[in-house]
TrEMBL record:
UniProt keyword Transport present: yes
Pfam families: vATP-synt_E (PF01991)
Keyword Ubl conjugation: no
Name of this protein: V-type proton ATPase subunit E
UniProt keywords, alphabetically: Coiled coil, Ion transport, Transport
InterPro entries: ATPase_E_C, ATPase_V1_Esu
Protein origin, superkingdom: Eukaryota
Organism in which the protein naturally occurs: Salix purpurea
GO MF terms, alphabetically ordered: proton-transporting ATPase activity, rotational mechanism
Coiled coil: 29-61
GO cellular component: proton-transporting two-sector ATPase complex, catalytic domain
Similarity annotation: Belongs to the V-ATPase E subunit family.
Length: 234
């Protein structure tokens, strides 16, 4: 083999090696690019997941905050409604209380009312002897109806007329006036108790008003809600 053949074979070998090297280099480049793309995709997906999770977390926070704000507004509205309702009920009760003061002004009708209140109290207590307290202003009216009240009670209860001791030392508070606007007052009526003081039946006009309001409170509240001023104030 001459030099020309040897040179030719060497060149062929060089081309083969170069081709192999280029092919291998291409394979490495392709593989590296694929791995890079996979890793990049994984990183992108991981970041997307983090962003979604962060968004969901913040969205939940917003929803929780909205619920808290709604709850607070609802509670504030309820308190406002209850306050308006309470104000209206108290206003109605105060108005009724002022009307009670007129009851004792008509002595004829008030005298009959006192007798009825005493009879009712006796029927509740069912005691043979009781202590009676009234306003100092009503003392003479009470004394004037005691006999008829005892007889009416005895007839209704089928018992002997009871002993009624009128307390001349302790009276019920006087009616309200400019001098005792914020003090204790009584619009009228009576309070009866057993002799030992263990059983007390308060039958004053103010106590009866309280009882009536408690019994009629659902109806009163309904009237408050139907009142146009109530709706305007809420």
């Amino acid at each position: 083999m001459n030099d020309a053949d040897v040179s030719k074979q060497i060149q062929q070998m060089v081309r083969f090696i170069r081709q192999e090297a280029e092919e291998k280099a291409n394979e490495i480049l392709v593989s590296a690019e694929e791995e890079f793309n996979i890793e990049k995709l994984q990183l992108v997906e991981a970041e997307k997941k983090k962003i979604r999770q962060e968004y969901e977390r913040k969205e939940k926070q917003v929803q929780v905050r909205k619920k808290i704000e709604y709850s607070m507004q609802l509670n504030a509205s309820r308190i406002k409604v209850l306050q308006a309702q309470d104000d209206m009920v108290n206003s109605m009760k105060d108005g009724a209380g002022k009307e009670l003061l007129n009851v004792s002004q008509n002595h004829h009708h008030y005298k009959d009312l006192l007798k009825d209140l005493i009879v009712q109290s006796l029927l509740r207590l069912k005691e043979p002897a009781v202590l009676l307290r009234c306003r100092k202003d009503d003392h003479h009216l009470v004394e004037s109806v005691l006999s008829s009240a005892k007889d009416e009670y005895a007839e209704k209860a089928k018992v002997f007329p009871p002993e009624i001791i009128v307390d001349h030392t302790v009276y019920l508070p006087p009616p309200p006036s400019k001098h005792n606007d914020h003090g204790l007052f009584c619009s009228g009526g009576v309070v009866l108790a057993s002799q030992d003081g263990k059983i007390v039946f308060e039958n004053s006009l103010d106590a009866r008003l309280d009882v009536a309001f408690r019994k009629k409170l659902p109806e009163v509240i309904l009237l408050v809600f139907l009142h146009p001023l109530h709706h305007c104030s809420i």
